[in-house]
Amino acid sequence: MSDYEYGNRCIPHPYALVGTQADSASDASYGRVVVPGEVDVTHGAILYLESVTVSFDGFKALNDLNLSVDDGELRCIIGPNGAGKTTMMDVITGKTRPDAGTVYFGQTIDLTRLNEVAIAHAGIGRKFQKPTVFENLSVFENLELALKMDKRAWKSLFAKLNGEQRDRIDEVLATIKLSEAAHGPAGRLSHGQKQWLEIGMLLAQSPRVLLLDEPVAGMTDQETAETAELFLSLKGKHTLIVVEHDMDFINTIAHTVTVLHEGHVLAEGDMATVQNDPKVIEVYLGR
Ligand SMILES: Nc1ncnc2c1ncn2[C@@H]1O[C@H](COP(=O)(O)OP(=O)(O)OP(=O)(O)O)[C@@H](O)[C@H]1O
Ligand SMILES: [Mg+2]
């Protein structure tokens, strides 16, 4: 096992109800067995941040941040510029180490002990704002590369795609509505389509959690509407955490919205609740 794999470094979450060791992992009524390397979501939460603080030269970009996201949820994160939204994603993906606090993936995987590569392999995919597709390769080839970068497929990096892998790529192409563009160069796609292709490249690796930072920035209204549909179709199959300033977009997809301000959760709830929260109104209008 390579040094970044977490399996042998699994430690129980402080809240983990390991209880009596059951004879079989499926025998939930007698407790459960923590399977090394598997994401344990028996209590519902797939991501759990507690009292996370990140300081840059004394300035707290995250300040006692608490956040819990359920498995399969589509969580929207909003907040003014500098609220700490991107920093929060940096902490989840291991790009930035918190000065204090805990970050758990399921109940047993402590993300603060893993590096970025291990976190990606554990099942947390992140989409950056600027699309980074390979322009000279076809859409299909971009997805093929992404699929082969998945640790589970490494052995086949230089092998031809097998039928199952082809089916997976076709499935992703249909999900991101690029089936017809599959064999043309990615460089010819529109900005919005490139964003979808990049999301598809993440999906090819079957992530449990997808982090999307300002995914509709620069998209046309039509592309934005189609992205909303895409995200709603992914909800449940994956957990999505979406940071966006586009409130119409958030309104279309939102179930639970978390408002960040000065590195801390200011409000959380459905869209109507947070929109009518006096603290939220003050932060947005008082800018
Ligand atoms: N590497 C860094 N060094 C110093 N300060 C940083 C660093 N990264 C972020 N910050 C500061 O931390 C604060 C939070 O930044 P962050 O990028 O997380 O905000 P954000 O909510 O994503 O904002 P935006 O909506 O503009 O993208 C900002 O004041 C930013 O200047
Ligand atoms: Mg940001």
Structure description:
The protein has 287 residues and is an alpha/beta fold. It has 9 helices and 10 strands. The strands form 2 sheets. Strands 6-7-8-3-9-10 form a 6-stranded mixed β-sheet, sandwiched between helices. It has a 4-stranded antiparallel β-sheet with strand order 2-1-4-5, covered by helices on one side. Helix 3 crosses helix 4 (163-175), helix 3 runs parallel beside helix 5 (191-203) and helix 6 (221-234) packs parallel to helix 7. The relative contact order is 0.16. The structure holds adenosine-5'-triphosphate and magnesium ion (MG). Adenosine-5'-triphosphate (ATP) binds at residues 56, 61, 79, 81-87. Adenosine-5'-triphosphate binds at residues 56, 61, 79, 81-87.
In short:
With 287 residues, this protein is an alpha/beta fold. The chain contains nine helices and ten strands.
Indicate the overall shape. Answer: globular
The counted number of beta strands is: 10
Weakly predicted, low-confidence segments? 1-30
Which class best fits the helix and strand makeup? Answer: alpha/beta
| Ligands and ions found | adenosine-5'-triphosphate, magnesium ion
Beta content: 15-25%
- Spatially, the strands of the biggest sheet line up as 6-7-8-3-9-10
Assign a percent range to the helix content. Answer: 25-40%
Largest sheet: 6 strands, mixed
**What is the number of helices?**
9
Radius of gyration: 20 Å
Query: Would you list the SSEs in sequence order as H and E?
Result: EEEHEEHEHHHEHEHEEHH
Q: How far apart are the termini?
A: 51 Å
Averaging pLDDT over every residue, what do you get?
86
